[in-house]
Amino acid sequence: MAEKSEKTLRHIAFIMDGNGRWATKRGLPREAGHKAGAEVFKTVSEYCVDIGIPIVTVYAFSTENWKRPKREVDAIFRLFSQYIEEAFARFLEKDLVIRFIGDRTPFPKSMTDRMEELERITAGRKNTLNIAINYGGRDEIKRAVNKLIAEGKTEITEADIEAKLDTAGEPMPDMIVRTGAEQRISNFLTWQSAYAELYFTDTLWPDFGKEDVDKAVEEFYRRNRRFGGV
Ligand code: FPP
Q1: How far is CA 221 from CA 4, 42, 62, in A?
Q2: Nearest CA to 53 among 131, 130, 128?
Q3: Does 21 contact ligand 1 (Cβ within 6 A)?
Q4: Nearest-5° Cα angle at 96, 120 to 108
């Protein structure tokens, strides 16, 4: 791993883009790309924790992704449900909190119950994996402000908003990695990304791996060494 400077990488976030193109290139249905992407998500998220990055956030489904064909949306949600069930066993031994961020109101109760159960069982552990599902950065800020209004606040501070974000209590992301060759943030961590280093790679998410994480981490410390001085 890269040498540490005065600013450590405490929170890394991933926009897991390129599943569909990966599948199409192979003559496979897009769903096959998401299946491969889900495997990479497991490997990469756990690897980040193993190399000492305490907080990992992934963008799994955005508030805009509902526009996709129903068959594809259903396939993605099947992967989430499988993952949630698998996570109960998978994270028994890991020092990892699972936290779902985003608006879960449209999900069936059977799903939200399992999400809450997983969050409850893993709460209080040392590291955190935030999984963004039905997440939009603007929507998150709107929900935060509505919570403050409901409490009767008439004037708010930045700290008030931060306390109501889905990521409340966590440090802001130090680096956001986007795979799949697009260079934009796409409504991800809109509030939290204000000072994040942005890292873009052409690699499609299903082709992304541990070595690519190492490269991104090295780049973080390189940038930090160059600009971190007084
Ligand atoms: C973006 O690629 C990816 C998604 C919208 C879905 C991400 C889902 C997973 C990685 C699998 C499930 C995750 C969990 C947490 C189990 P795209 O489809 O936009 O790719 P394209 O730009 O090539 O079409």
Answers
A1: 7, 24, 29
A2: 128
A3: yes
A4: 45
Ligand 1 mutation pick, 14, 17, 77, 186, max ligand atoms within 8 A of CB: 17
> What six digits make up the tokens of 83?
């993952």
Q: What pTM, to 2 d.p., does this model score? A: 0.95
Q: Is the CB of 31 under 6 A from ligand 1?
A: no
Task: Check pocket membership of 137 for ligand 1, CB cut-off 6 A.
Answer: no
- State phi, psi for 61 to the nearest 5 degrees: -160, 125
Element (H, E) at 100: strand 96-101
* pLDDT tens track, the chain, 230 positions: 444 445 899 999 999 999 999 999 999 999 999 999 999 999 999 999 999 999 999 999 999 999 999 999 999 999 999 999 999 988 878 899 999 999 999 999 999 999 999 999 999 999 999 999 999 999 999 999 999 999 999 999 999 999 999 999 999 999 999 999 999 999 999 999 999 999 999 999 999 999 999 999 999 999 976 655 55
